[in-house]
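Sequence, please.
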């Protein structure tokens, strides 16, 4: 059975019972869906939710499906440890080019809405955070054909739903989506775009991979899935869309026109990147007869994990080229702006070189690199903080790199404010915190521990509880 959203749901239920919560009470798509994610997030829990009764929507909704390392490891057929430490997420995986199937073999063609029927207000599209300008598609993989090379390209882009028939799209600076759109615009033509909603997390990871050159994401998805993605002709556009998606929305970007988009809370947890954006007119919607609309909890852990994971892999690849022994990399999911790198240090220049390699991997968003020794687990916040407390001296070990971030990123530190409160774009700085011990042969103070063999002698079951009236033993 080919992999898709529902094959993954079944896999989660089999391997991680309790990880998918069904909510069958009536839920308002305006804040009701993110409310469940936020309520559990406060308790430090990140189950996936399947909503079967979202008000006004024709389909059920799944959210938070890719919100944990454990489910992502399951999706990619690996362990959490391997997912966090492998230097290349695609390593050892063979390429599987997409295969085209007939529409009879494409579940996404079971229901077809065209003309006046193709209305976005029939779908349960969530509004996520308090000041969002409206409902947003957050898990739609946008597929476009580059008019120059004819390659099919894919990426996740945010879509502000304006009304039943139109929505916005945001292509960030250097992304191929924007390049392709500009090429159609230059000819004053509409840009065809298919939005695939609801698929296996491996498919989504393929779509957000930084594949060099335009296109290649279907192959990257095939590599993550370990099998070819089945694709099918769109109804109204000359593109191929995933046959096993839950829903596909087909649209055309209006040439030469823009509309104010946003506000929308991005992954830093902030309202950034609003402004005039291209407009998509919907031309068709197709789906499975029991389709599930997939949502990503925007500005939540799911959003940061999906964006952070491919970057962790890229930082690993780049840092391992400049140090003798890279031990671990973490971009902590609660910020996604910092990066912890642990190395087995052999000379005192390595931490700086490691930090620059990490910064250069993602100069737009990473702006603080903490380098630690190999005895520090980069996934343990307390351990990293302990290393900064005991091995870092600000005067010697802090390096500030001025004019590092361009104003194009998503960080508000890339703005300054004049005395009237007006925003001006500016360059912001980055810093390196070297929390490593001096390199050998220097003898740095030893970290204390109780010997493991002694700890193993402890038998908690042999204790009894202290009770009132208990007599202290006499001196022997
Ligand atoms: C949940 C999520 C939301 C994203 N939203 C956007 C977005 O609104 N605009 C954008 O340009 N990139 C967004 N991205 C990043 C792109 O999908 C990603 O960088 C992709 O590789 C871009 O592909 P492209 O260069 O082929 O266009 C998002 C990524 C994730 C995981
Ligand atoms: Mn691309």
């Amino acid at each position: 059975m080919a992999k898709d959203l529902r094959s993954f749901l079944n896999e989660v239920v089999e391997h991680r019972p309790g990880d998918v919560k069904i909510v069958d009470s009536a839920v308002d798509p305006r804040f009701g869906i993110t409310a469940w994610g936020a309520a559990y997030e406060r308790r430090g829990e990140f189950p996936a939710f399947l909503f079967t009764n979202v008000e006004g929507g024709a389909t059920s909704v799944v959210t938070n499906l890719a919100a944990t390392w454990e489910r992502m490891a399951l999706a990619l057929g690996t362990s959490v440890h391997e997912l966090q430490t492998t230097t290349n997420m695609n390593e050892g995986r063979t390429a599987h080019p997409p295969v085209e199937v007939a529409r009879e073999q494409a579940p996404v063609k079971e229901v077809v809405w065209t003309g006046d029927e193709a209305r976005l207000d029939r779908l349960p599209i969530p509004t996520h955070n308090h000041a969002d300008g409206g409902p947003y598609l957050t898990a739609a993989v946008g597929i476009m054909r580059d008019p120059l090379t004819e390659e099919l390209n894919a990426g996740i882009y945010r879509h502000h739903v304006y009304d039943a028939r139109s929505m916005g799209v945001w292509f960030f600076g250097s992304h191929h989506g924007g390049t392709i759109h500009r090429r159609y615009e230059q000819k004053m033509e509409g840009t065809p775009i298919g939005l695939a909603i609801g698929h296996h997390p491996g498919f989504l990871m393929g779509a957000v991979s930084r594949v060099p050159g335009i296109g290649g994401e279907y192959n990257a998805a095939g590599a993550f899935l370990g099998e070819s993605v089945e694709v099918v002709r769109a109804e109204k556009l000359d593109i191929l869309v995933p046959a096993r998606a839950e829903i596909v929305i087909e649209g055309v970007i209006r040439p030469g026109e823009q509309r104010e988009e946003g506000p929308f809370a991005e992954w830093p947890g902030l309202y950034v990147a609003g402004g005039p954006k291209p407009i998509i007119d919907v031309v068709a919607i197709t789906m499975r007869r029991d389709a599930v609309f997939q949502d990503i909890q925007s500005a939540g852990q799911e959003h940061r994990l999906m964006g952070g994971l491919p970057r962790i892999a890229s930082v690993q690849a780049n840092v391992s080229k400049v140090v003798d022994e890279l031990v671990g990399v973490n971009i902590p999911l609660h910020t996604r702006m910092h990066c912890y790198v642990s190395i087995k240090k052999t000379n005192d220049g390595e931490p700086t070189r490691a930090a620059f390699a990490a910064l250069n991997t993602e100069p737009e968003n990473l702006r603080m690199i903490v380098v630690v020794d190999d005895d520090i687990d980069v996934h343990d916040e307390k351990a990293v903080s302990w290393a900064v407390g005991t091995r870092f001296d600000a005067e010697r070990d802090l390096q500030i790199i001025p004019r590092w971030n361009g104003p194009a990123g998503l960080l508000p530190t890339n703005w300054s404010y004049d005395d009237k409160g007006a925003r001006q774009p500016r360059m912001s700085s980055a810093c390196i915190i070297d929390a490593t011990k001096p390199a050998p042969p220097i003898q740095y103070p030893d970290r204390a521990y109780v010997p493991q063999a002694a700890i193993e002698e402890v038998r908690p079951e042999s204790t009894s509880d202290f009770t009132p009236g208990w007599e202290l033993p006499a001196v022997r």
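The chain has twelve helices and 23 strands.
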